[in-house]
Every structure is written in C-alpha cells, then in structure tokens.
Design goal:
Length: 92
C-alpha cells in the first residue's frame, strides 16, 4: 500500500541517505536506491539501477549495476593543477 493516507507502518518504504563522493558521474535516468554509497571518482552508466555500494574510480552499468572496469584517475592531477592556479591567481 502506498497511498499517502496509509500509516508508515504499512507502506514498507525504506528511507536512507545516498552518499555521493567527489568526482562521481551518474548517467541520466539512473536510479540509486536508498543507503547506497558512490565512492570518489565512480561513474555510473545511464539507465542503470544501483542497489549496492560502488567502489572508488570504478565504472558501473546495467540493471542491476555491475562493475565494468577501472576509471582513469587523471582528473585528480587536473584538480590539483586547477587549485594551484587559483591559489597563484593565474588563470591561463
């Protein structure tokens, strides 16, 4: 039963935070279920269903989402260069 007038005890709805780390990409149309953690640098393909936690810098896709392969970590170096430019005041 899902009617708003039905008491919560009878709805069987689970509520929990979804934690999304830095540099995570989530494709359009993806559903991330409650309680899932998407660790830093993860990428989730479009139209995926994420039921379980996803590890750092992994690429996941499908219904349910499964690990496909590792994601490159070059964006961390680019982030460091950007922060250095901002701190030095140079905007090349």
């Amino acid at each position: 039963m899902t009617n708003p007038m039905v008491p919560e005890d009878f709805t069987n709805v689970f509520h929990a935070d979804v934690i999304i780390g830095r540099h995570v990409i989530v494709g359009s149309g993806t559903v991330v279920l409650p309680g899932v953690t998407l660790e830093e640098g993860g990428a989730i393909g479009a139209l995926s269903l994420v039921r379980d936690n996803c590890g750092p810098f992994g690429i996941y896709a499908g219904t349910p989402a499964r690990f496909v392969r590792e994601r490159q970590r070059g964006l961390l170096e680019a982030e460091q260069r950007l922060h250095a430019q901002i701190q030095n005041g140079s905007h090349e």
